[in-house]
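Let's study a protein:

___
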Amino acid sequence: MKTKYAQLHAICHTLFAVFAGSLLAVAAGCDSADRPDLLKEQINSLKQEKTQLTRQIKQSGLENEKLKKQIQVLSGLPADAKLKNFYNLQRVKITGYTDFYDKDKDGLKEKLIVYIQPIDQDGDVVKAAGSVDVQLWNLNRPDGNALLGQWRVEPDELRKLWFATLITINYRLTFDVADKIEKLEGPLTVKLTFTDHLSGKVFKEQKVIEP
């Protein structure tokens, strides 16, 4: 932060010098008929850059002060207090609402919706940050091609899928399976791997969906 702050100051001082030089050039060349418009344009451009850099310097100063305060607060906490108040993920549950759905009411269940609940040490559902890998399997398939589909949900996308109702709270993941299954004639298995980005723990869970 200090380096960025110093760089912005240096750039701003440079622009001030260029700006002053441009003013001198205008004064010295005021008798030339073909230069004033060009110099005026350059001066206006330098004024705009100066204004932008001044704002950036001010913003960097505010961010620097904010970080200093955060460091002071953290350094004053007891050593065991810095992590104990974070959630401690114990397991990840695939809920009973997980199923195939006919979204357009055409008689074909083309969507797989997987509901998952990260659960902490107190048994509470928490919005744990992480990545999710989901696989759909037909373990009874005779040709050996049991894996029907697989998907990955990255942390930035996962946090947008947090879903709460009066009844339950969970992540809701939706996948298109129209090209994966034609008809539900037997049980299919959803396998899930959840990687918790706070602790680095990896949780595995699976659920059988009956037709």
Summary: The chain has a mean pLDDT of 82. The chain has two domains: 2-81, 89-209.
